[in-house]
Amino acid sequence: MSFDIWITYVATVLLLMSTPGPSQLLMLSNSATNGLKRGIFTATGDLTANLLQMLAAGLGLAAIIAASGAALAVIKWLGVAYLLFLGVKMILKADRKAAQATPRASRKSLWMQGFITSAANPKAVVFFAALFPLFIDGALPFWPQFAILSVTYLTIDGLFLTAYGGSASWLATRLKGSARLWLDRAGGGFMILAALLLGLKSLRDAQ
């Protein structure tokens, strides 16, 4: 893969990530509530799901997943319901957190939230299967090029998620009292918004 092609790919990925999606909103919420060090586990869960989706695309499973409309719908709506549940739960706990300290979410829970949010969009497999061939030279070995594209995407995505999480964590450490209470409520709101975005995307895909 030539350097020019790789740079074009990087620019394309940056443009695709310029608008926050469900995973970015979840990262904002979890980092504001639990701090960046724990929020990183949310990013790790998201990137793990992305990696599996890339591998599925590389192994030629995109066509199978695209043909399984019922399975897609079930996975996506389960993800929507899960995020809605977490968002409402966070808002309801906000008042109690103002009165007493509440244990932070476990690393496993944060990882699972990130993984489920990303995995709730199984059509990402189709997306990667459509994106990667645009930058792969058929005259060169496939898997080394696939590895470069995958690692580049995961690195950029990880940097974006870390930037979102770092900003939210920085803000959370500087807010006290009622301001922090409203930040916690906003965190729940971000999670609900992420669920709504996933739901709207699912409705559009069904049309």
Account of the 3D structure:
With 207 residues, the chain is mostly helical. The protein has one domain. Helix content is 82%, strand content 0%. It is built from nine helices and no strands. The radius of gyration is 18 Å and the shape is globular. It starts with a helix and ends with a helix. The relative contact order is 0.23.
- Fraction in helix: over 70%
State the low-pLDDT regions, or none.
none
What is the count of distinct domains? 1
Shape: globular
Would you tell me the overall average pLDDT?
Answer: 78
- Helix/strand structural class: mainly alpha
Kindly provide the radius of gyration, computed on alpha-carbon positions and rounded to a whole number of angstroms. Answer: 18 Å
Number of strands: 0
The run of helices and strands is HHHHHHHHH
Q: What is the distance, rounded to the nearest whole angstrom, between the alpha carbons of the first and last residues?
A: 37 Å
Strand percentage lies at under 5%
Count of alpha/pi helices: 9
Main beta-sheet annotation: none
Considering the chains and any ligands shown, give keywords for the structure.
9 helices, 207 residues, single chain, mainly alpha
Task: Give the topology.
Blueprint: H1 3-16, H2 22-34, H3 36-58, H4 62-67, H5 69-99, H6 107-119, H7 124-131, H8 142-173, H9 177-206
Helix pairs in contact: 1-8, 2-3, 2-6, 2-8, 2-9, 3-6, 3-7, 3-8, 5-6, 5-9
In short:
With 207 residues, the protein is mainly α. It has helices spanning 3-16, 22-34, 36-58, 62-67, 69-99, 107-119, 124-131, 142-173, 177-206.
